Amino acid sequence: MPTAYQTTSPLRQRFRPLWWLAISYVLIGALTRIVLLFMAGSGVPHNPLYWAYAFGVGLSYDLITFVFLGWLLLLYLWLVPKRLYVSRAGQWALYVGGAVTLFGLLFIAASELVFWGEFGTRFNFIAVDYLVYTTEVIGNIRESYPLGTWISLLAIATLVVVWLSRGGLQARDGGTTFLQRSKVVLVWLLVTVVLAVGIKGTLKDRTDNAYVNELSGNGVFEFFAAFRSSHLDYSRFYRTLPDDVAFKRVRELVKTPEATYVSDDPHDLTREIRHAGPEKHLNVVLISVESLSADFLSEFSNNKRGNITPNLDALTNQSMFFDNLYANGTRTVRGLEALSLSVPPTPGDSIVKAHNNENLFSAANVFNDRGYQSDFVYGGYGYFDNMNYFFAHNGYRAVDRNDIGKGETIHHENVWGVADEDLYTLALKQMDEAHAQGKPFFLHIMTTSNHRPFTVPANRVPQKNGTREAAVAYTDWSIADFIKRAKDKPYFDDTVFVITADHCASSAGRSSVPINRYHIPLWIYSPKHIPPQRVSRQMAQVDIIPTVMGLLNFSYRSRFFGADIFQLEPGRERAFPATYEKLGYLHSDVLTVLEPQRKLEQVKPNFDNGDAVPNTPVEQGQVDDATAYYQVAANLFKHGQLVKRPDDSKPVQPAPEPAPVAAPAAQ
């Protein structure tokens, strides 16, 4: 009596392991999606339609991804001759290959869970970006998670599944020819090409809930889609205006009362910023704190996390404190870009990591023209994210972990760098040296302690080491300790401390650009020069440096896109919250989001929870403003027009002092 294998066509026998792989991959995808759904929690409403969409569309993307992932096994099934294929060695090759493949797929699924826990999304451009820096990323994983235990459990699960499903990996061939197998491969190739050309990761984004859209995708597919879009040309992928119209609009948008254009060239944004009276050449210490979300502060969190920032909370009443500030992005490089160049984010790669990013018009240029020593000080190794190269080629002296001597005390370090207190010790060293040389200094300090694995020096904070709460509490302690140590320095009274965040601790939300995930604090602290006050006007991260320069009464040439918030007329405030491909423009209570394929979304965001509802009718003026800002910024960088020019260093005459008001005549 013929067996089931004998009644199956030879081609089906030969390619049966592909069915095993497909079923395994679909089941892994479904289980991953279930776990991610639970991890999303209240982010996904209890609506069966959302669930059906996530799992139905998700299944489609899993099958599409399988077509690409199946190629290695397909090539083996196609090319190996029958005699070798059905031999004992061929059978073991299938078992071992199947086990290795299954382990890899399970490892990717586990990695997705970790990535979702950190960023609230499937793999995206951040995952692509991190792949370049394997030392830091692998070190971060090893320090944050029990990697050995996880790998052991995944290996055991792999062996169990392969053993139980070994029938699907049986090497059978009832007599196929190479030509017959080639026809299968040809069809597979045609399907692969059609899917590669016709299916985009954005096709799934059809609901009003960002978590559901993410659940509907496939991590591997999203990873490669992000890889392909890492260099997005604005004019090719986004909504545009005629160049002359866009530049004219931006010239109007960046013009402020104290600024005068130096030429009538419609494509030139160079302005002379003129203030009355002498400049104040005070020292400036800019601290961009890793992941310091506004809601870590007691007044924004209502103490839900406990009182983990007592020193920063106290500093709020001693500083000029800005409580309505929004970051440019969700990555450190976006914060560095905003704080050094004062430009809206470019789609895809940050300018910090882009090619041809040298000699740009930067904050350091303005300070250097006044005799300052400008340093970028980082506690890790600044090759990460191209930081050292970028800053060293744009007016700064790059100082990093390599500049800490072997004999100097290091209280703690992890894969990202030394503890914040040791970073501040390094910064104080640079400040002392500049002061000894009779130079004012501008320091941009970038911290690392508030980053997973969240390990901090012992006996500094009561929170459990390795937790976010401990890292935030230590961030708070180390800033207070830094200011305390700086108070003993002869230059303290003439130093302005500017403390803000590079971005928030989380970027996940139910809307495409959850505005609450961009809310960051800003303190400007200088007891002898800047009286405490609360500033609640909406403000962009790109406005920080122009505002500081305004407080110093600088008169200078500028091509910054940001504005001195105290010169910007009320009602003109805006911010640029963005992801690597979704470009946001926040004006008042309306958020416009520009997306690839020239898509557009305009919503009214909820500033407390990040939700959003469509803004109807669409305010076309804001759409055009958003388009103009991003189009012009991308255009200027692409064509090398953001560079520092020789005329930028020429002194700008201060504005005339206002005429005294005559006393009224005596009656």
From TrEMBL:
InterPro entries documented for this protein: Alkaline_phosphatase_core_sf, OpgB/LTA_synthase_biosynth, Sulfatase_N
Keyword NADP annotated: no
Region ranges (Disordered): 643-667
Transmembrane segments: 18-39, 51-80, 92-116, 147-164, 185-203
Record keywords, A-Z: Cell membrane, Membrane, Transmembrane, Transmembrane helix
Sulfatase N-terminal domain: residues covered: 283-553
Primary localization: membrane
Cellular compartments annotated: Cell membrane
A Pfam family reported for this protein in Swiss-Prot or TrEMBL: Sulfatase
Topology of the protein relative to the lipid bilayer: Multi-pass membrane protein
UniProt key word Membrane: yes
Superkingdom of origin organism: Bacteria
SUPFAM superfamilies the UniProt entry points to: Alkaline phosphatase-like
PANTHER family found in the cross-reference section: LIPOTEICHOIC ACID SYNTHASE (PTHR47371), PHOSPHOGLYCEROL TRANSFERASE I (PTHR47371:SF3)
Protein known as: Phosphoglycerol transferase MdoB-like AlkP superfamily enzyme
Originating species: Dyella japonica
